[in-house]
Amino acid sequence: MLPYGRQSIGDEEIDAVAAVLRGDWLTTGPAVRAFEAELSTVAGGAHCVSVTSGTAALHTAYAAAGIGPGDEVVTSPLTFVATASTAALLGATVVFADVEPDTALLDPAAAKAALTDRTRVVAAVDYAGHPADHDALRSVADSAGALLLDDAAHSIGAAYRGAPIGAIADLTTFSFFPTKNLTTAEGGAVATRDAELARRAARFRNIGLVREADEFRITDQGGWHQEVHEFGLNYRLPDVLCAIGSVQLRRLPEFLSRRAELADRYRRLLSDVDGLVLPAQRDDVTPAWHLFPVRVLGGRRREIYDGMRAGGIGVQVNYVPVYWHPVFADAGYRRGLCPNAEAYYAQQLSLPMYPGLTDADQDRVVDRLRALLT
Ligand SMILES: Cc1ncc(COP(=O)(O)O)c(C=O)c1O
Q: Where is the PTM N6-(pyridoxal phosphate)lysine found along the chain (predicted)?
C-alpha cells in the first residue's frame, strides 16, 4: 500500500542516534539544547521548548497560557482532536468557530463572532500546511485580550506574509510525528517569542519543577532542593530523538521543496478532472504542503476512498469535525454547528504526499483517481 505520508530517514539520522547512544546523555543533554536552538532559527528566532508530541505541545502551550475552568478557547473543528481536547483536559470550554469553505482554515469572522468575555485563547490551525489568516486572527484575539495560538503541526517551514510560522502567534505548536514535514519519531515543540511563556512551557514539560534558588519558597534546604509551584508533566523529548530532529531540520528545505514540487505536479495532472476540487491557496502565503487535500464532488468521497485503497493507494480523510467525536457530543455539542467544516469534511480526501513519493508513484495515484472519477 502506498502510504499517504511517510518519513524520510537516512544514514545521517541513524548515525546521529548511534552517537547519542554511545554518549553520556540519553535525555536532558546537549542534543536537546542543540535541537531547540536550531528549531528556533526555523521559527524566526522564537524560544523553542521541545516536548514528546504535538499533543504534548498543545497541552503545554495551553498550560503556559494559564487556561483552566471558566476560560474559553475558540478554535477550528477541522483539525485533529488534540487541538481541542488538550484545552478541554485543562478544564477550559472549547468553542468551535467555522472555517472558510475553500481553505478549511479558521474563518476570522466566525472566530470573532464566537468571542465572549471568557475567551482566553484563539487557536488557529494551519490545515494541510497552509497558514491561516494570522493577521486577521491576531486582530480578533487582541479584541478579546486573548492569546493567539497556532497549531502548526502541518506547517513548520511555511510562511505568512513573509514571516516564518513560529514567529507569528503568541504560542505555536509543532508535531514531529513520522508523517509530518520533519520527524523525531514522536515529538513536538512549543515556540514563543515571549520569554515568560517559554519559561512556563519549559516548566510544565518538566513536571513543574522549580530549580532556580531565587524563586524558592522553601529556603532552608540544601543544594539538592527543587520544588513545585504548579503541576506539570514529564513531556521531555530525549536526546536520542532530538538528534534525529537536528538532522531532519537540516533536510527540511529539501523536504519542503519536494512537497511543493509534488503539489504543483498534482495540480498540473489533475486540473482537467471533473468532480474534483484542488486545494485553494492564498497569494500571501508560502505553504508547506503536509497534506494534499482534494475535494470529491457528487457525494462520491466514500466510493473514491474505497476505490483508491482497493487499488493499494493509502488515501486518508482529514478530519472528522472535532465536535462529532462522542466525547464532545456527550458534552452537548451538536452536528450542524459549523456547516462549512461539515461540508468540507464530507468531500475531503488526502492524496499521498511525502518527500519520498516518486513521480511514478504519483502518476499511479493520478491514474487511479482519474479512472475512478471518469
Ligand atoms: C493539526 C494537528 N494537531 C495536533 C496533532 C498532534 O500531534 P502528535 O500526533 O504529534 O501528538 C496533529 C497530529 O496528528 C495534527 O495533525
A: 180
